[in-house]
Amino acid sequence: REQIAGDLMAAEGPDGRFRERVIATGFLGLSIRNGIFKHYHPELIIEDTIDTIGRSILGLTIRCSRCHDHKVEPISTADYYRLYGIFASSRYPFSGSELPGFSAGESVLLVTPAQWAALPIGHRRGIEGLRATIARTLANHPAQKDLERKRKRLAGDVRRYHQVRSRGDFDVALRTSIDDQDIRIREEISKLDNSVRKLWYDLKGTERLAGLERAYAMREASPRDAHVQVAGDPFDPGPLVRRGVPELLARGQQLEIPAGQSGRLQLARWLTSPDNPLTPRVAVNYIWQFHFGKGIVSTSDDFGLGGATPTHPELLDWLARQFIDNHWSVKHLHRLILTSKTWRLAGTASRKALATDPNNHWYWRFDRRRRDAEAIRDGIMQVAGTLDPSRPGPHPFPPEANWQFSQHGPFKAVYESSHRSVYLMTQRLQRHPYLTLFDGPDTSRPTPRRKNTAKALQALYLRNSPFIHQQARELAKQLVIAEPDRRRRVRRAITRVWSREPVAGEVDEVLSYIDQYAARTKQDADLREGGTSKLVLEYLFDGDVKDTSGGKRHGTLVGDPVFIAGHSGQCVSLDGNGDYVDSGAVLDLGNAFAVECWVRPGPEQARFADIFGNHLGGNSRGFVLQQKGDQTNQFTASFGIGGDAWVISKPIILTAGKWQHVAMVRTPSKLQLFLDGKLGAEVASPSAVRSSELAFRVGLGITLIKRCFRGDIDELRVYRGVPRRYRPRATAGQIELAAWSSYSRLLLTANEFLYVD
User: Fold this and answer.
1) Which residues of the chain have pLDDT under 50?
2) Nearest of 657, 672, 549, 527 to residue 604 by alpha carbon
3) Which of 48, 212, 534, 643 is deepest in the core (most CB within 10 A)?
């Protein structure tokens, strides 16, 4: 009832429920929108509302009667427009831009007259004054006056168009013209000078300071009956019909709608009347379907002639009566079903029963089925101890100044949250990828019954998702801390996640698995950043610049480099004056790589001389190992990553005339410099490296200015991925946690957890 007419019920009191009653009308307020225009195709908005109410509350496909009498049900086109008039007499919120003049006044202030009167006089006067100033400014703005003139002219065009109606392009043009003018002019208003914009934001700030909140909610508009739209065309009006409900359901007693009201309140009361034959049966059928996977009426959104007949009509009627007699308490109905013998049946099957009733038509066993998407996510966080049961604050919208959304790059409500899935942001035209993967509802239309699929992508998500790995680690941490004894720890894990005691031999099997996993993990690269590594370029400099990695990226000598005795065999010697080695190869190294070589610096270096790199300069893509600039033979690493630069400010200090081993390492989270196998400096690197389009060079990194290295270089190697010697060794505690995390992942993704049986 409150979802249909909560704003009207709120005015009747009590004040303590004012906010939630107004907000409840978001059920209608979230009806589908068509583009960014406020008045664009209202007939489609109302059609969505009628379809939602029909299928979710009445169990009827009323929408089919918009263009013609229903082909199956005794619902006429006039019946459709009886309901249409009720919602055409209501004001839908337009949840578009919040800029001044664009959707001003669309939201409802969540305050009762008594609460408003109780506000400090200063707050009230400030808010009222700002409202009046904004209203005057917008009313006197030339663009607003231009809009009113065009509306009057278009109203005349519409009247003439109805008198001499023609089909063609003008039909579409006339439909959209007022909205096009409206949006253009309101865009101009949104570009008002800063003083007016400041007034708008001052008003919002003053309301917040006074503790006032706003919500998008339904309100009353000018009440009017609706014309039948011939063939569903709003520009071809037919007979006028009085607002009400379908005649068959009215049973001779149509709604009595007082003058000046839309009829929403009367519709809400009729829908929830004990005498309504459909609402309680449809409601209890949906709840039964939630618990058993199928309804007593399998077509839960269609109780009409085109739908299925109930398998147990007496049970449906009895549950409906229980529902009504207990004040429409959903909690009572849940308790009634969950304490029944039918719900507590096991899912095991017998050969004889399967032969008699293979589809479990008579509920002789419980149908095994997978949990729904929200229950899987919430259940995982619950047992992992990461679920926050409280009600969250506002959704994390990006700052308004950062909005750059478009038709091809819309806002997507995907963000991390530790709260229950019911609190995730719902978008009508953008489905949440996780909820979609596990058969969540189609948010663009009513979903009477969810699918229950088992797909390869679901298995891949459960195996590889960072969310699953994170929750498994959290569960493992709690198990390790809470229970030092390993056998009792296994028992605690099974009872916590699977809600049962371990069976004979199960604890031993689990401990065997954990021991095997821990043994493998001691040398497993999975605990270390960078993954497996592959040699992609190798220059030994033994008299030539051939690539001995197998990649055949042979280099070219530029300037006058010479080969002399090196650290092992020969090396290349560079004079710092234009000498370098050009590999000619663009290296796609991804987000984890390592470059290492032996160097013997000369006594002096040019400022910012480069040992190696593929960097253009500035914040461009690529990397370089270069001289710090203020002191000779002090070197730092610089990375250009997607338009930003990360620099390891702490240098490694090289000794002139001495062979030293240097390595630059990039893991998904760190940039590191190693000197003679020891970590010399590092910095966090939170962004992904974008591949440089420049060739890799030795003795030269940044190409805008040829800052060449002076000294000798030997045995240079480039790896995609990070070799093990540059990864931190795992401790015994890390190995134990990794093993228990792996087992926790098995617990959380096993059928015993994911399925209701």
Assistant:
1) 97-104, 154-187, 189, 192-193, 525-527, 529, 641-643
2) 657
3) 48
Q: Which residues contact residue 721 at a Cβ distance below 8 angstroms, ignoring those fewer than 6 apart?
A: 530, 531, 532, 533, 534, 590, 592, 593, 594
Whole-angstrom distance, CA of residue 167 vs CA of residue 230? 14
Report the run of H or E that residue 393 belongs to, with start and end.
Answer: none
Give the per-residue SS3 of 30-59. CCCCCCCCCCCCHHHHHHHHHHHHHHHHHC
DSSP E strands in 101-144: the ranges are 107-109
Q: For 368, which DSSP code?
A: P
State the angle between helix axes of 121-140 and 142-163 in degrees (0 to 180), rounded to the nearest 10. Answer: 60
Q: How do 634-641 and 622-627 pair as beta strands?
A: antiparallel
pLDDT at 590: 77
Q: Are 305 and 297 in contact (CB under 8 A)?
A: no
Tokens representing 601? 């610096």
Q: Are 78 and 252 in contact (CB under 8 A)?
A: no
Secondary structure (3-state) at 526: helix
Q: Contact at 8 Å (CB) between 702 and 615?
A: yes
739 CB-contact burial (10 Å; exposed 0-12 / middle 13-18 / buried 19+):
buried
Tokens of 629: 């600039």
**pLDDT given at position 651:** 81
> From CA 226, how far away is CA 304, in angstroms rounded?
25
Bridge partners, residue 435, by sequence: none
Residue 562: predicted pLDDT: 96
Q: Kindly state the tokens that stand for 699.
A: 């003795």
* Domains in the chain with CATH codes: 1-110+214-273 (no CATH), 274-356 (no CATH), 368-528+730-757 (no CATH), 534-726 (2.60.120.200)
The answer to whether 612 and 696 are in contact (CB under 8 A) is: yes
Residue with tokens 């060739």: 695
Let me know: does 651 contact 667? Beta carbons within 8 Å.
Answer: no
CA distance 168 to 162: 14
Q: Residue 530: which residues within 8 A CB-CB, separation 6 or more?
A: 592, 594, 665, 667, 668, 721, 722, 723, 726, 727
**Residues 715 and 585 sit within 8 Å (Cβ to Cβ):** no
The secondary structure element, H or E, covering residue 710 is strand 710-720
pLDDT recorded at residue 681 = 85
Q: How far does the chain reach from its first CA to its final CA, in angstroms? A: 35
Beta bridge partners of 538: 717
395-445 pLDDT, tens digit each? 766 655 555 555 556 666 777 889 999 988 887 778 888 999 999 888 888
Q: Which helix (H) or strand (E) holds 579?
A: none
What is the crossing angle of helices 313-325 and 330-338, to 10°?
130
C-alpha neighbours within 13 Å on the C-beta side of residue 374: 12
574 secondary structure, DSSP code: E
From the list 751, 727, 608, the residue with the least C-alpha distance to 677 is: 727
CA Rg value for the chain: 35
Collect all residues with Cβ–Cβ distance below 8 Å to 137 and sequence separation of at least 6: 192, 196, 199
Distance, CA of 597 to CA of 723 (rounded, Å): 14
Cβ–Cβ under 8 Å, residues 583 and 553: yes
Q: Is 405 helix (H, G, I), strand (E, B) or coil?
A: coil
Task: List, in sequence order, every residue forming a beta bridge with 647; answer none if it has no partner.
Answer: 638
SS (H, E, C) 644-684: EEEECCCCEECCCCCCEEEEEEECCCEEEEEECCEEEEEEE
Place of tokens 């006089």: 121
Distance CA 474, CA 493 (A): 12
Q: Are 420 and 389 in contact (CB under 8 A)?
A: yes
Asked whether the whole model's pTM tops 0.85, one would answer no
HSE, side-chain direction, 13 A CA sphere, residue 88 = 21
CA distance 613 to 582: 10
Cα-based torsion angle of the residue sequence 505, 507, 513, 519 in order, rounded to the nearest 10 degrees: -120
